Amino acid sequence: MSYQNCRTGCIVLKNVDFGESDKIITLYSPDIGRFAAIAKGAKRSKKRFVNKLEEFSLLDISYRPARHDRLHFLSEAELKEAFLSLRTNCQRYCTAMLASELVLRFTREHDPDRRIFSLLHWLLESLHHGASPLPTVVFFHLHLLDACGYRPKLEHCAICSYLPDNKRGLSSFTLQPSNGTLICSRCSGNTGRSRFTLSLQSLKFLQTAQGMTIKQMHRLQMPENIASECLSVLYSYSKYLLQCDIHSWSFLLKITGKQK
Ligand SMILES: [Zn+2]
C-alpha cells in the first residue's frame, strides 16, 4: 500500500476524543468501507477540522493510509454536507444514531460496499429533509441486512409454502432468527406473540419495501404503528445475529414513547 496521501468521500459514524488534543474518527467510505483514522490536534484545531468531524457529516478527506495495523492519519477534511437538522431534532438524531450503529456493527473494517454507503447517505439526506424517521429506518435496516447477507426470506411460509394473503385468515407470522425464514401461525401452532411475530399487514409492508429501490421508497406510505412493529422485529433479528445489544435502539424507543 502506498503511504502517499489518498482522497475519498465518507460519512462520520463515530467520533471520540483521544488524549489531550486528538480525535479518533470512525468513517464509512464507498472505496474503503469502515475504517478509523486519527485526527491530530482536532480538539484544538480552529481551522483544519473545526465542526467537520461531527457524527453523520459527509466529508471529502485526504488521509495517509495506516502502516502496520495502526490508524489511518487524517490530513484534511472538507465538509460536503453537515445534515445539521439531525442534531437539532431528537427523533431524527436517535434514528441516525441507530443507522450508524447498525453500520458499525454489521460491517467489517476495510470491506467496502457502495450499496451500504448509498443507503446510509440516503437515510441521512431523507431524515434531514423531513422524511418520517421510523419508516425510513425500517427501509434502511431491511436493505442493510440484505447487503450484509442476512436478507430475511419473507416470500412464504418455509414449511407449507403458504403465501401470505388475506384469504386463509392467518393473521400472524414468525420470523425464525436462526435462518431468516418465515413460519405461518398454523405451522408453528403458536397463536401467541413473540419478539419475532409479524402481523400480516406488517409483513406485506416489509415485502413491498424489500422489492423497492431507494428511488422508489417515497412511494411507500408506511403507518407509524406498522413501522414500529417492523422495526421491533428487525431489531430482535439483528440482536440475535450480532449476539450483542444495539444501544441506540433504547434511545429511539424512549423518545418515540414506545418503551415497554
Ligand atoms: Zn405454514
Automatic annotation (TrEMBL):
GO CC annotation: bacterial nucleoid
UniProt record, GO biological process: DNA recombination; double-strand break repair
Residues covered by the DNA replication/recombination mediator RecO N-terminal domain: 5-83
Protein purpose: Involved in DNA repair and RecF pathway recombination.
Family statement drawn from the similarity comment of this UniProt entry: Belongs to the RecO family.
NCBIfam families noted in UniProt: reco
Protein name as annotated: DNA repair protein RecO
Organism field: Candidatus Electrothrix aarhusensis
Taxonomy of the source species: Bacteria, Pseudomonadati, Thermodesulfobacteriota, Desulfobulbia, Desulfobulbales
Gene: recO
